[in-house]
Amino acid sequence: MSRTVFGLVAVGAVVIAIALGVAWRGKMTEQAAIDRPPQVVGAPAAAPTPDTLTTATAQKDQAATGFQIMAGSAPAAAPPPVIRAPTFDVARIGTDGRAVIAGRAAPGAKIVLLDGGREIAKAESDARGEWVIIVQDPPLAVGQHELRVVQHIEGKAPLTSEQSVVAVVPEPPAASAPAQPRAETLVMISPPSGAATVVQPPTTAGLPKAADLSLSTVDYDDRGHVTVSGLAAPGTVVRAYVNDRMVAEGVAASDGRWRLKPAEPIGEGKHLLRLDRIAQDGRPVARLELPFERVVVAPVSNSDARRLHIVRGDNLWNIAQAHYGAGWHHTVIFAANKDQVKNPHLIYPGQILSLPKVN
């Protein structure tokens, strides 16, 4: 009896132990499930980085075209080079019409020199774009000339210079004429707008000069705005006075050229122009004085023409250049004034010429 009781007690103890073990293991599993972070179903993938996008795009393009594309390796297209119009630097023309003309253009360009639209000489610019043309066979004839150059580059449209060289070759003195200083060839380089630059004066005396200060041009438009130009030592100050009142100041460039444009226009009538070259201490060290006159002539009754009062230094070519924009229109002025102009190369101060309208 006692053995049976003890056996039943032992078996019951084992069963209870097994039940407790199973219950403890299930509780630990449940606690682990609670502590684990929840997993979201259908969460979006991480956003791709720019490098990932670039690589994916390159792979897509490569698959479509069959060519390998390097990310970020396609350079921007370079702008085409700017081709500038040719320019003049030097113009030397003798009284016999023989000339040396030099300037700049695109390297390796073919340069054609035109006289009033007619080809008279050719050259080619070097690797630095510099060109030189010698005109001697035949030389320039007596009279006015307007010289331009045309630049030719293979595969490009021709470019004509915006500048022009205006020259007046004088007539040789008559054998019976009394001895007197011979006139020189007047040579000016004329920009597309503004006053021309005298590079060769028409007299042996040269331009008005005092020490290193010289006067090249005095020009004014129909509204009275004046432009004065000349030469001085590079970097020096030049002041302009009209009727003893300072109207402009400037500094000579590295090549010695200076140009002054007073802000206020001048009135009709006679004026006195004074130029001073100023030293570093503010004192004038060179001075020029020149009287000039602004003449305003009322138009004639004919509405298709104007009148111009001729002053010293005028010639038909320059008048046509100023009023019509082309020197070769001087023939129109000559034809309209044959009653008082017998030779188109000879006009005189005091004459009043008619300027007809041209198309």
From TrEMBL:
Q: What Pfam families does the entry give?
A: LysM
The superkingdom listed in its UniProt entry is Bacteria
Which InterPro entries does the protein's record reference? Bact_Kbp, LysM
All residue ranges annotated as the LysM domain in the record: 306-355
CDD domains given for it?
A: LysM
Quote the protein name from its UniProt record. Answer: LysM peptidoglycan-binding domain-containing protein
